[in-house]
Design brief:
Layout lengths: L2 H19 L4 H10 L6 H8 L7 H11 L3 H7 L5 H45 L6 E2 L2 E2 L8 H4 L6 H17 L1 H6 L20
Antiparallel strand pairs: 1-2
């Protein structure tokens, strides 16, 4: 790791530590930065505090003004007593939130792909109600005759996939403070299950 990367990491941890010590949210810091003339949002603060976005010199100066400390204090604070433990907790929480979002993303993609397969099967069945291996366009003698929709019936069962996604979305209510703290709630992909009796959580 270069000196520049070490300073960037120290600054990122220092910003987060100062904010948390004041009991303020990421949205609060984003609002303060916008008042200083910077186009910051909650997601910007999240990226800065997790080292996913570099901070410009003028932005660093504004952050120091907001916290009413010298920039050097932001760097030093990340090395204060207990900072390593705080960083490990935050990094573990970041990883957990990323995993939850990946699970949600996969659930949404599964639903969308299931819909695409359903449409493709329906179109096929309108043109040819039989699905199966053919020779020169004719069904193999003794082969099972069924529609494409029937052939893929189990894959087209939305119930399990949708129930998982709905339960995962409903869980956001229980872990809302964590998700908001990490600035992730507002980036969940739109999802509207079509299964009977299920609604988007």
């Amino acid at each position: 790791m270069t000196n520049a990367e070490e300073y960037e990491g120290a600054f990122a941890r220092g910003v987060r530590l100062h904010r948390e010590q004041r009991g303020e949210s990421q949205q609060w810091l984003a609002d303060k930065m916008r008042a200083e003339g910077h186009e910051w949002h909650q997601s910007t603060v999240y990226k800065v505090e997790t080292g996913k976005r570099k901070v410009m010199v003028e932005e660093a100066a504004s952050i120091a003004d907001i916290f009413q400390v010298p920039i050097s204090d932001l760097l030093a604070s990340s090395d204060s007593s207990g900072a390593l433990a705080v960083r490990r907790v935050n990094e573990a929480a970041d990883a957990l939130v990323d995993s939850l979002l990946q699970m949600d993303d996969l659930a949404v993609k599964s639903h969308q792909q299931r819909l695409a397969l359903s449409v493709a099967c329906a179109i096929h069945d309108e043109q040819d109600p039989h699905w199966g291996l053919r020779i020169s366009g004719k069904p193999i003698p003794g082969g099972v005759e069924e529609s494409a929709t029937e052939h893929y019936r189990q894959l087209l069962d939305f119930t399990l996939a949708d129930e998982f996604a709905v339960k995962l979305r409903a869980a956001w209510d229980g872990i809302g403070p964590l998700m908001y703290e990490h600035g992730m709630v507002n980036i969940l992909a739109p999802f509207a299950p079509t299964s009977d009796g299920l609604v988007d959580g």
